[in-house]
Amino acid sequence: MPELHRVLPALLMSLLPAFCMAEAKVETISTSPACKTATQAINEEGYVDIGGIQQWVTIKGRHCSNPVILILHGGPGNTMSPYASSIYGAWEKDYTVVQWDQRGAGKTFGKNKPDEDTPLTVAQMADDGVALADFLTRHLGKKKIILTGSSWGSILGVQMSVSRPELFHAYVGTSQVVSYKANQASSYTRVLSLAQAANDQETITKVSALGPPPWSNPRNFGILRKAIRKYETQRTDPAPKAWWVSDPAYSTPEALADYEGGEDYSFLKFVGYKGDGMFSKVEFAEHATRFAIPVFFVQGAEDLLTMPEITRQYVDSITAPHKEYILVPRAGHDPNLPFIEAQLKLLNERVRPLSK
Predict the structure, then answer these.
(1) What is the CA 40 to chain-centroid distance, rounded?
(2) Domain boundaries, the chain
(3) How far apart are CA 280 and CA 157, in angstroms?
(4) Pairwise CA distance, residues 194 & 184, whole Å
(5) Coiled-coil region(s) at which residues (predicted)?
(6) By the 8 A CB rule, do 326 and 342 touch?
(7) 39, 74, 174, 334 - which has most CB atoms within 10 Å?
(8) Is residue 142 within 8 Å of 311, Cβ to Cβ?
(9) In this structure, which topology does domain 42-355 adopt according to CATH?
């Protein structure tokens, strides 16, 4: 879901085509098979033609024989490509990790520069994700891949898993978004309750002034999000500061402008000018409870944006070959060390065996 803070970027990541692993700058990722041998490392980044536009993708792993994980970032608009090496670098030993700057975000936003009237829909972006997953199976020589989505990315993840299950070994949802109505209402009530218990008059005044959701003013979501972050910070372990130091390639004035432009564009499409944005269409309990693949949900116990009880109710309603719900103490909505460690433990112990 939208991150309204700005993180200043810092680490160097080189562009190494998978064929010879020699250092070279590339603009597009080849459509040809990338892996010549099972033991070959892969390190590619560039644009892929997806949904009629060029979209930015990075592919990194130490062995082509490893399972492939496609990570769907949150926001919308909060790409993880600038921070992937810091947060997910350790995963590359046992997985080929794929980051994707979604339509309207990061380098994909910069490449295509949509104007504010260019539409953005969940269906369109889920179709993009399916097209990318299909490309990855062919490019990396895999029958299926592992899909994981966080927050906004979990909206796309559910849609993709339901529509094209044959592409995926399993789906892992983190900070899963379930319902426009239920997620917002529960967050509003909980934050107001915490503020009242703390006699936090400033937050009480600001949040009470919004009134209960749904809202027609797009600024209201941002006001609530700020209060959520305040109280999550008090109840969770902080993420390592080094995680949010970006690769220098994403720290140029142009790259920073593209990141921020994508955030602004995507946020408005998410909430809508009158509360009628992409988020308002999300009600998974009504139309996305039957999965043909195993599904796993990792939830921060202190998440105030996608509340644990809402996710738990949704998981209980799901029919799937296998389903699990993992609650992580001292974790909130955004990633921190306990959250990332819990995800990797789940992948290694429960999900990886499904890829064999």
Answers:
(1) 28
(2) 42-355
(3) 17
(4) 16
(5) none
(6) yes
(7) 174
(8) no
(9) Rossmann fold (3.40.50)
- Give which of 48, 6, 47, 26 is closest to 256, Cα–Cα: 6
The beta strand positions in the chain, using DSSP E, are 42-50, 53-61, 68-72, 96-100, 145-150, 168-174, 295-300, 323-328
Does the predicted model carry a pTM greater than 0.70?
yes
Tokens of 247: 């690769």
3-state helix, strand, coil in the chain (%, to 5): 45, 15, 40
